[in-house]
Amino acid sequence: PGRQEQHLQLMMQLLRPQDAIQLAVRLESARPRRVRYLLVVRPEEAGAEGQTALLGVDFAHEGAARCTLGMVLPLWSDTQVFLDGDG
What residues does the Slingshot N-terminal domain cover (predicted)? Predict the structure, then answer.
């Protein structure tokens, strides 16, 4: 598989079995080799619509075999998120 597919598989390993990635966006990084993603994640179970979260995931470099969770932000019904400039 390509790099993006490998990254998605590694990111899925960070999640609970009932969670699903709704959206994954690769971000620009201030460090040249570091690879960063912003994920929108929520449980697939019925009635879990209000349990959405933003996750920040980091890879040390493009071919890294593991990733780390750098940010967790729960989204509530009145949450507004603005991404501006370098994040």
Answer: 7-87
Q: 38 vs 13, 16, 21, 47, CA distance in Å?
A: 15, 17, 10, 24
The tens-digit pLDDT sequence of the chain (87 residues) is 688 999 999 999 999 999 999 999 999 878 788 999 999 999 888 776 668 899 999 999 999 999 999 999 988 776 677 777 664
Q: Residue 20 half-sphere exposure, CB side, CA atoms within 13 Å?
A: 7
SS3 percent helix, strand, coil of the chain, rounded to 5, is 10, 35, 50
Domain coordinates of the chain in residue numbers? Answer: 3-75
pTM over 0.90? The answer is no
Token pair, residue 29, equals 């990084």
60: number of Cβ within 10 Å: 14
